[in-house]
Specification:
Blueprint lengths: L4 E3 L2 E3 L2 E3 L4 E2 L3 E2 L4 E3 L2 E4 L3 E4 L7 H12 L6 E3 L5 H4 L2 H7 L4 E4 L1 H10 L8 E3 L5 E3 L4 E6 L9 E5 L4 E3 L21 H17 L3 H12 L5 E3 L10 H12 L8 E6 L4 H15 L6 E4 L5 H10 L2 E9 L2 E2 L1 H12 L5 E8 L6 H10 L4 E3 L4 E3 L8 H15 L7
Bound molecules: MU-OXO-diiron.
The site of MU-OXO-diiron (FEO) has 9 residues, from helix 2.
Length: about 400
């Protein structure tokens, strides 16, 4: 099959995976995912990463086709996670003369994953070290914790390509497209790019900021990530999204209602708040049932919106467990710089509000709007003024900029 070209001498060897149900065995993939690899056909040949074992067959066929009888001189390993390095040991066995460019931490991880001694083949990559292969010179920049500690990126000064590892990647298969300008990114990929970022890299905002500062010093013309499309246009849009996400800035002045409701009474109160917000001119309020929506989507929505409302029943004297799971996931991903409001319900001993407040209080830069609204089984007409008061406070928070620093 004809291989797509990134440039005249750089081929795309990646593949869609439309069969995997759960990325990392946890994140649903309704639109699939790609594992990207790139082959540089310079005076010496360079392979940028391998792929997940699921795409191994097509990858090795593509590599053979791309090399067209030439030797493979180098493989550059940007990341040792098995979605990229799962076929690395097989590759090194098939191409025994190829040298391996990797960080020391990546080399140590190789030894953890595989029983093979590659020490004689490794060219250690350190911050700022380079590899020249003829026309191309690659500069290696470490990017620890974007998304694992051994990660590095490469910048090719000849083409202006940044091989960015997991950074700037997204969930979603490409269906033959290669470049972001060949797809409708805003319509079809933005939500999945956000879900990918928040869940995979979201905890590591500071390391992402460090990488963005390094990248800002380079004359980058194209970004080649390990998942999703290659970016050769509108790089500012992509980098801007990453900048905002990694600073934990709300992307939209929106309100998201996260609801954990056992029989619907808690949801009814959240719906009443949604109506009060709409009457005050707040658009695009979204309500998610936390028991029915995957937590990775909820997390991404919490990153996107400016105000989150958590409405939950008390359950076993604790927080209704799907809501507790969401809050723990938000904490694990260092979600911060937001305002939130709380609604609790309990027919005899409402306790979810106190526990949710404690959990959120253990996180950074979060501000509770108003007092927790307590339902005893169901919202009563006498509580509608409390709903209105909460809506007023949410409107006020939406119009401030203080949470966006
Ligand atoms: Fe796509 Fe962290 O691996």
């Amino acid at each position: 099959m004809a291989l797509r070209k990134v440039t005249d001498d750089i081929l795309y060897l990646g593949a869609d995976d439309n069969r995997l149900a759960l990325f990392e065995n946890v994140y649903p993939l309704p639109n699939g995912v790609t594992y990207n690899s790139y082959l540089v056909l310079d005076e010496q040949t360079v392979l940028m990463d391998t792929v997940d074992r699921a795409a191994g067959d097509i990858f090795f066929r593509s590599l053979k086709e791309g090399l067209n009888g030439r030797a493979l001189d180098y493989v550059v390993v940007h990341h040792m996670e098995p979605d990229h390095a799962g076929t690395l040991n097989d590759l090194l066995a098939l191409y025994p003369d190829a040298k391996v460019v990797m960080t020391k931490k990546a080399q140590a991880m190789f030894g953890q994953f595989f029983d093979a001694d590659i020490s004689a083949r490794v060219i250690p990559a350190a911050e700022g070290s380079t590899l020249s292969t003829g026309r191309h010179t690659f500069t290696f920049l470490t990017a620890p914790m974007v998304h694992w500690p051994e990660v590095m990126v490469s910048f090719d000064s000849e083409s202006g390509i940044l091989f960015s590892a997991d950074a700037f990647g997204t969930f979603g298969s490409l269906h033959g497209a290669l470049f972001a300008d060949e797809i409708d990114f805003e319509r079809d990929f933005l939500a999945e790019a956000r879900r990918y970022y928040c869940n995979i890299v979201g905890k590591y905002g500071t390391p992402v900021q460090t990488l963005l500062k390094k990248a800002a010093a380079l004359d980058i013309k194209t970004i080649c990530p390990l998942h999703g499309p290659v970016w050769r246009k509108d790089l500012d849009r992509l980098v801007g999204l990453y900048d905002g996400w990694s600073k934990y800035q709300p992307e939209d002045r929106d309100v998201v209602l996260f609801v954990g409701s056992v029989y619907g009474h808690t949801e009814e109160a959240a719906q009443a708040l949604g109506k009060a917000l709409a009457e005050r001119g707040v658009k695009n309020v979204r309500l998610y049932d936390v028991a029915k929506t995957h937590v990775s989507t909820l997390l991404a929505e919490a990153f996107r919106a400016k105000v989150a409302v958590f409405a939950a029943s008390t359950y076993n004297n604790g927080i209704f467990t799907p809501m507790e799971g969401l809050l723990l996931d938000l904490k694990a991903h260092d979600w911060q710089k937001r305002s939130f409001a709380l609604i609790e319900n309990g027919s005899w001993a409402p306790n979810a509000g106190k526990l949710m407040a404690e959990l959120l209080g253990s996180m950074k830069n979060l501000t509770q709007l108003g007092p927790t609204l307590t339902l005893k089984s169901a919202l009563k007409p006498a509580q509608l003024p409390d709903i209105d008061a909460l809506a007023d406070q949410i409107c006020a928070a939406l119009s401030t900029d203080e949470a966006e620093g």
